[in-house]
Amino acid sequence: MFSQDLVEQFKLRETPFYHYDLTRLRETIKVVKSFAQEYDFDIHYAVKANSNEPILQEINQAGFGADCVSGNEVKLAAKVGFAPQSILFAGVGKTDKEINEALAIGIKAFNCESVQEIEVINELAEKANQIAEISLRINPNVDAKTHKYITTGLDENKFGINQIDLPELVTRIKDFKHISLTGLHFHIGSQITDMKVFQGLCLRVNEIQNWFTDHGIHIEHLNLGGGLGIDYLQPDEKAIPDFETYFNIFHQFLERKPDQKVHFELGRSIVAQCGNLISRVVYVKTGINTNFAIVDAGMTELMRPALYQSYHQIDNLTSHSDLRDYDVVGPICESTDCFGKSVALPETSRGDIIAIRSAGAYGEVMRSQYNLRDHHEAFYSQL
């Protein structure tokens, strides 16, 4: 993963910064595309996972669409070159400004999460003299068996329309003359590693879709979300998730209607393993019960450990001594600013280069300037 030449380049750069391996990204995209095409599935990349333009350009060149959750993501996708008809706009709190801008761009569809949102889109589409295509994001009440902060498909989550509200919604939607209901959208969570969860999602989607069929509503496309997890424990040995099993489950258990399009909005599983946060050790501090490796990256650069108690493998790229345990911590004035406790690293010294792995998704996009932190440009490498 890290050649000696690459490490030498890291040493010359001001840290911390994100490193992206475009070769690994391309390899992952190739595998995704191969297995998706086998079943005629469409991929819309979840821009929220990583919105760096070089990353988006690689994904656009592969022929994937864009799944966006803000007006600025919609505009960026269009700017990078995604065709408007390949852009989907999701999210529970779309503003009037964002909706109007998306209508002007001519996106494929809005994924709607409440009756009131549909009312607003209908009103704004009428003013723009357009018919807005929409999908209903339905809450299937499927437990993703993942961290509670990234579970999105249960009844008590803020996302989606509950099934109990569907009869009233279907009755009312007939009055909206500037709305065209063409799809259903489901997304139950993120970092899902139990494949049986997706089988359960398929069975619930089949039930819900049959309900619409029974009510005389034809669904042109299904969006099954994303959520496929990666292996944070083995970023090199298992760099590419098991897309073959993932897509095969939907092929087996989803009751697809004739000529019906099926979409997936993959994010983390495509980009996470191509990104690493590169940092430098500024101090090594010996405590009473532990040693601290204090690095110049903090929760301002990578929020996930503080927010989700998430694990990221940590490598010392410049030391090859005997292993010792360290708490790897950042400089931010918060006790949660910790990347890992009792991390076994080669004996670590001031100036060593540290790589925090599997940080290509929900890493750089979530950074902040808390403590008025500086940010440095990302570094891209390829074979």
From TrEMBL:
Highest taxon, organism lineage: Bacteria
PROSITE patterns linked: ODR_DC_2_1 (PS00878), ODR_DC_2_2 (PS00879)
UniProt keyword annotations, A-Z: Amino-acid biosynthesis, Decarboxylase, Lyase, Lysine biosynthesis, Pyridoxal phosphate
Cofactor requirements of the protein: pyridoxal 5'-phosphate
GO biological process annotation, one example: lysine biosynthetic process via diaminopimelate
Ranges where the Orn/DAP/Arg decarboxylase 2 N-terminal domain occurs: 30-272
GO MF, one annotated term: diaminopimelate decarboxylase activity
InterPro entries linked to this entry: Ala_racemase/Decarboxylase_C (IPR009006), DAP_deCOOHase_LysA (IPR002986), De-COase2_CS (IPR022657), De-COase2_N (IPR022644), De-COase2_pyr-phos_BS (IPR022653), Orn/DAP/Arg_de-COase (IPR000183), PLP-binding_barrel (IPR029066)
Coiled coil: none
Active site: C333 (proton donor)
Catalytic activity as recorded in UniProt: meso-2,6-diaminopimelate + H(+) = L-lysine + CO2
Transmembrane segments: none
Residue positions, PTM N6-(pyridoxal phosphate)lysine: K48
Pathway: Amino-acid biosynthesis; L-lysine biosynthesis via DAP pathway; L-lysine from DL-2,6-diaminopimelate: step 1/1
Keyword Membrane: no
EC id: 4.1.1.20
Record has Coiled coil as a keyword: no
Name of protein: Diaminopimelate decarboxylase
